């Protein structure tokens, strides 16, 4: 008999790719999503329950009906800028919403929890690459809303025997190589889809925020990880928790690409000129964010399959140009 896995946010970007990967490995993903930012068309590998993670009565019904062997928890608001303008909505959705899920798990005896954390829990990096022991001091409410969940997870683990894997992702990118699903955020703030959009619409150029950083070409460096590699890591984390204790793990490729390199790679993939506007730095953007991924290898046996940015961008471009 296949095991059910509750996937909150399963209609979103990373959640839908993880549902596909779960189904490929013999699990049945049960997607719970309020469609605030997700898409019904992205749920193809198991049932979609339209509803909110903060609806405790709904969670009770789901746990009774599906008896999930674990929960992979993606549901959250993700836009850092909005979190600065409206922090309450982030603490309510990301932190309080997760608390409701954890309490339901506690009461229904569900013990395995894989959490979408983020590199934003570290705040300004003191050293690169970032290891999991780097001090955590987020610099925006989004990061704090996730940091607080990590704190709750420790306490639920001590008090109730919850086993969790907090996966601190760097920059998710790419799309399903088979082009069944892909990134469709609204608003979109991620660099690669914005650059690709500019390739299609030269009249709407992107702005590069800062060209005078202490990096080889002066633009910020980030660690872009293919969404399918993220999906793979989630299933490994779920399996890991069947016999191991809780852990927080970085998910990144361990190599960085500058904004300038992303634009050049997108030119190569699309054949478009892509002429960005050059702007000034944004407050709070560190020059470099790159993961140390040794712990992911050690604990999960995980290595990124997609290590070249060209292929990741090609998958995103293929998705953007789907028929
Ligand atoms: N995309 C990235 O680069 C990145 C990086 C680090 C961490 N993360 C984290 O990964 C997770 C998934 O990110 P994503 O890019 O797939 O975002 P996404 O917006 O595509 O997916 C989130 C999904 O959660 C749903 N959702 C939000 N609040 C809900 C609620 N209260 N009840 C039910 N469903 C709800 C949305 O409708 C959406 O489908 C998020 O938790 C995000 O913070 C993402």
UniProtKB/TrEMBL annotation:
Coiled coil regions, renumbered to chain: none
Requisite cofactors: NAD(+)
Protein name: UDP-glucose 4-epimerase
Catalytic activity: UDP-alpha-D-glucose = UDP-alpha-D-galactose
Any Gene Ontology biological process: galactose catabolic process via UDP-galactose, Leloir pathway
Keyword annotations from UniProtKB, A to Z: Carbohydrate metabolism, Isomerase, NAD
Gene Ontology MF, one: UDP-glucose 4-epimerase activity
Subunit structure, interactors included: Homodimer.
Pathway the protein takes part in: Carbohydrate metabolism; galactose metabolism
Tagged with keyword Hydrolase: no
Assigned EC number: 5.1.3.2
Domain NAD-dependent epimerase/dehydratase: 5-252
Family: Belongs to the NAD(P)-dependent epimerase/dehydratase family.
EC top class named in words: isomerase
Pfam family membership, one: Epimerase
């Amino acid at each position: 008999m296949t095991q059910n896995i509750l996937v909150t946010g399963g209609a979103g970007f990373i959640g839908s790719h993880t549902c596909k990967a779960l189904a490929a490995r013999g699990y049945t993903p049960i997607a719970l999503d309020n469609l605030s930012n997700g898409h019904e068309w992205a749920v193809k590998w198991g049932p979609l329950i339209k509803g909110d993670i903060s609806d405790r009565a709904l969670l009770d019904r789901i746990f009774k009906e599906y008896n999930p062997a674990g929960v992979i928890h993606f549901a959250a608001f993700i836009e850092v800028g909005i979190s600065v303008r409206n922090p309450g909505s982030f603490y309510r959705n990301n932190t309080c919403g997760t608390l409701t899920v954890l309490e339901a798990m506690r009461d229904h005896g569900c013990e395995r929890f894989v959490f979408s954390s983020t590199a934003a829990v570290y705040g300004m990096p003191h050293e690169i690459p970032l290891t999991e022991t780097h001090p955590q001091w987020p610099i925006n409410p989004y990061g704090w809303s996730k940091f607080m969940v990590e704190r709750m997870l420790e306490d639920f683990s001590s008090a109730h025997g919850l086993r969790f894997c907090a996966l601190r992702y760097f920059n998710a990118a790419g799309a399903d190589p088979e082009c069944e699903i892909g990134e469709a955020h609204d608003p979109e703030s991620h660099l690669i889809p914005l650059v690709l959009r500019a390739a299609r619409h030269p009249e709407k150029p992107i702005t590069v925020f800062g060209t005078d950083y202490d990096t080889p070409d002066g633009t910020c460096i980030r660690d872009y990880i293919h969404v399918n590699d993220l999906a793979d890591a989630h299933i490994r984390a779920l399996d890991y928790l069947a016999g191991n204790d809780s852990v927080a793990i970085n998910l990144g490729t361990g190599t960085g690409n500058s904004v300038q390199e992303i634009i050049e790679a997108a030119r190569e993939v699309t054949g478009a000129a892509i002429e960005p506007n050059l702007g000034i730095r944004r407050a709070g953007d560190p020059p470099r964010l790159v993961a140390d991924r040794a712990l992911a290898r050690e604990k999960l046996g995980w290595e990124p399959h997609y290590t070249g940015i060209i292929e990741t961008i090609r998958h995103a471009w293929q998705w953007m140009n789907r028929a």
